[in-house]
Amino acid sequence: MLAITEPGVATITVMVCTQLMKTALIENAFGFFAHLDPSPMLMLQPKEAAAEQFSKERITPLIKATPVLRRLVGTRKTRNSDETIRYKSFPGGFLAIEGAGSPDNVARRPIKRVFCDEIDKYVPTREGDAVGLAEERMGTFVGAQSIRACSPTIEGESAIHDSYLEGDQRQASVECPHCGHRQFLDFFKHIEWDKEHDSEGHVVAHHHKTAAVHCESCGCAWNEAQRRAALQTARWHQTKPFRCCDTYQDPMAAYEEAWRAPQEVRPADPVGVAWEWWQGPRWAVYRARCSKCGNWPVDNEHASFTAGKEFSPWDRDAPPKMARKWLLWKDDPDQRVKFDNTQRGKPHRRAGGKVLLAELLSARAETWPGEVPDGVGIITVGGDTQDDRVELEFVGWGRGEESWSLLYVVIEGDTSSEALWDRVDQQLLRTFRRADGREFNVSAACIDSGGHRTNEVYRFAQARLGRKVWAIKGASERSGTRQPIWPTVKPSNRERTKFKPVSIGVNAAKDTIRARLEKTDEPGPGYMHFDAKRDLAWYEQLIVEKRVPKVVSGRKFTVWDCPKGKANEALDCRVYAYAALQGLIHFGTRLNEAVDETTGIYIPPPPERPDDVKTWGSPDADDWVGGGEGSWL
């Protein structure tokens, strides 16, 4: 809130974790301006439904609960009133709450102050970026301001992260309650908990309930009361690197070097090495200063802020709760994204930058007894359709989506012929056996319906829906928004009357698979096991695609792209097999429970006896004890 009245600030960006200061900032900014500096204001939500919900659940209660706003903002309910759910007027101005998806909503009126909420969820309009369009409306006003708020998403694709980097990159520091050292809290640097180790030093147990902030200087742990008291000492610092006096300078690096210096040469005030305190009646911030001339090279026209749940005062966000989430989510790539975004308030850096070599993946191939190794609970199939063949991968799934490539089959022939699809069906009906004799069948399959054989795939899948054989296609992602691997939106009644393929989030699936390919530590959740029968060309197909950047209507995002002339069927089959697993989970399958049901010693059932074999005690046998006539007893 102090940045709103800080001289020189025109744009404010707030990139923080969930449930921390974003909505409160927008609400309080509206109330402040409506009361003390009224003007035309526009609030953007991702969609019109979200705009209406925000008005009902946040703005209207705020007005009712604040006496000064209750007296200012109209509350008439008549049909002819200027007041609507999404339009609030007051002397000297108004607040219009709109969805960002329509350029007419964004560009039709002059505005002095714009509040853009959840900007990473905005879909580009036909006229371009909604934030840019809205801020263009401020051109005629002196002292216009824009506030952008959102939790981040993916690095390189997150609009709020790009906005944060454009600004002066403010971070908060707090004082240690034991030694007074000022530090910038970070989960991985400051939060520690007790662990148990084996004789070789490997961690075998975590005690997350002991998690606490530990001072990076004195090493003392903070109890929860001390952590909350430390939050009262929070100060914001401009941390954006700059060039001044022909020297590149990084305030954070300068501070780190200063406080870590030996005691005899350590500055009395390490903070003063990198920053200078600037305070007024309604603002306060540490301004980055040049170490040579002492000037402030980083302007404050765009004040950008970031913070995670390390700075939250709520009990639900205390270090033990963060530690528990980390331990639960760290082995799942999708959950890792969520942890970075919702807990740390940081954009997630996708896997894919790491160089993968087919030879290294091939070197970790395995053999296992039986057709199915221990640990598998479910088998799914992914099928890639070409004009002259269908390629299938059979994948076994274990706890935490640990996977085994059980079998890879190429069925050659004309894919427009029924005979070929009969052979595909025979493969899907095959039975796999574990070394102890337990049998496994295919639980679900996804067959690609793209290319030239769409109708053939539709007919094949539609006749086998009861066996969970699904025709699939890649979901459209022209707007740059990653679609879920399995769709979450229920089809309408009209859509249920006709057969349609399942639209899967191919890019999201490839994100996950790539991250798991890079998981080279010990087997466990997410780890990918490969059968030693795979040749090197198969591994090359698995890693052939690269992530490439795209820009649509000003929005940056990345997609996976296969270089021209290269084959990628192995990757596609794995994507479709993973989609089949997600389909099962969507319809109620509990993977870990399914795995647990197949573990343990398997005792085969006794062989069935032929009907014509009579055994002792059978009711229709010639019982020689008390049997028919002539019995000797």
List descriptors.
single chain; 633 residues; alpha/beta; Rossmann fold; Nucleotidyltransferase, domain 5; 3 domains; 10-stranded mixed beta sheet; 7-stranded mixed beta sheet; disordered C terminus
Q: What is this structure's SSE topology?
A:
Layout: E1 11-16, H1 22-36, E2 40-45, H2 48-65, H3 67-72, E3 87-90, E4 93-99, H4 103-107, E5 113-117, H5 130-136, E6 145-150, H6 159-166, E7 170-175, E8 182-183, H7 187-190, E9 191-197, E10 203-214, E11 221-222, H8 224-231, E12 235-238, E13 242-244, E14 247-249, H9 251-259, H10 270-274, E15 275-280, E16 283-288, E17 302-307, H11 319-329, H12 333-344, H13 358-363, E18 378-386, E19 389-397, E20 403-412, H14 418-428, E21 432-433, E22 439-440, E23 442-448, H15 454-462, E24 469-474, H16 493-496, E25 502-504, H17 506-517, E26 528-529, H18 536-542, E27 546-552, E28 555-561, H19 569-586, H20 591-598
Parallel strand pairs: 1-6, 1-17, 2-4, 2-5, 5-6, 7-17, 18-23, 20-26, 23-24, 24-25
Antiparallel strand pairs: 3-4, 7-8, 7-12, 9-10, 10-11, 13-14, 15-16, 18-19, 19-20, 21-22, 27-28
3D structure, described in words:
By secondary structure, this protein is an alpha/beta fold. The chain folds into three domains: 2-166, Rossmann fold (3-Layer(aba) Sandwich), CATH 3.40.50; 170-197 and 204-328, no CATH class; 378-597, Nucleotidyltransferase, domain 5. 29% of the residues lie in helices and 24% in strands. It contains 20 helices and 28 strands. The strands form seven sheets. Strands 1, 2, 3, 4, 5, 6, 7, 8, 12 and 17 form a ten-stranded mixed β-sheet that branches. A hairpin with a 2-residue loop joins strand 18 (378-386) and strand 19. Helix 17 crosses helix 19 (569-586) and helix 18 (536-542) packs across helix 19. The longest helix has 18 residues, at 48-65. The chain is globular and about 85 Å long. The N and C termini lie far apart (103 Å). The model is unreliable at 612-633 (pLDDT under 50).
